[in-house]
Amino acid sequence: MDNNSFLPALAEKINHKHEALVEIVEDALDATVQVDSAHIVKLMTELKEQHGYNMLFNVTAVDYPEHFAAVYTVVASTGNRPLTVKAMLAKDRPEIDSLCGVFKAANVQERETYDLMGIRYLNHPNLTRVLLPDDFTGHPLRKDYAAT
C-alpha cells in the first residue's frame, strides 16, 4: 500500500500550528519532508503518533558545502511508504534536538552521527563517542577532516 496522501495536509498543519517551515518533495520512488530544525521533535512525534511512522530506521547526516543536513528515515507499520526527513543545520553550529524521547532507536544512531560527523544532538542522554576512541580528534566523515 502506498498512501502518503496525508503529507500535504500535514505540512500545512505543522506550518500553521508551529510556524515551522515544512516542505514536501515527492517523486515516484521517494517522499522527503524537509523541516526547520527547531521543529524536528514536533514533526517526528506527529508522524509517529498520528500517522503510524513508528520505526526510526536510520539517522545520518550529509556534509554539503554550505550546511549540514540531519537525515532521518522513518517507516510505518500502516503501509505508508518510508519517509525521509531532512533538517538543514548551520556549518558553524551543527546541532539539533535529540529524538531519543520519541524513538529509542535514536540513541545509538545519534551517537554514531555525532562521532563521525560532529552533529550535536541537544538533550541526548549520553552523547559520547561510540565508534572512535574518546581521545580521537575531529569527525572523520566531514569533508574538512584532514587525515594525517
Write structural notes for this entry.
The chain is α/β, with parallel strands linked by helices and about 150 residues long. It has 3 helices and 7 strands. The chain has helices at about 5-20, 40-50, 105-115; strands spanning about 20-25, 30-35, 55-65, 65-75, 85-90, 95, 120. It is globular and about 50 Å long. The N and C termini lie far apart (about 50 Å). The model has no long low-confidence stretch (mean pLDDT about 90).
Given the structure, what is the number of helices?
A: 3
Q: SSE string, helix = H, strand = E? A: HEEHEEEEHE
Instruction: Report the end-to-end length measured between terminal Cα atoms.
Output: 50 Å
Q: Report the sheet with the most strands, covering strand number, pairing sense and barrel closure.
A: 5 strands, mixed
Helix content: 10-25%
Which structural class should the secondary elements be placed in?
A: alpha/beta
Major sheet: arrangement of strands:
1-2-5-4-3
Gyration radius over CA: 16 Å
Quantity of strands, as a count: 7
Low-confidence stretches: none
Looking at how many chains there are and whether they match, the oligomeric state comes to: single chain
* Strand residues, percent: 25-35%
Give the overall average pLDDT: 88
Shape: globular
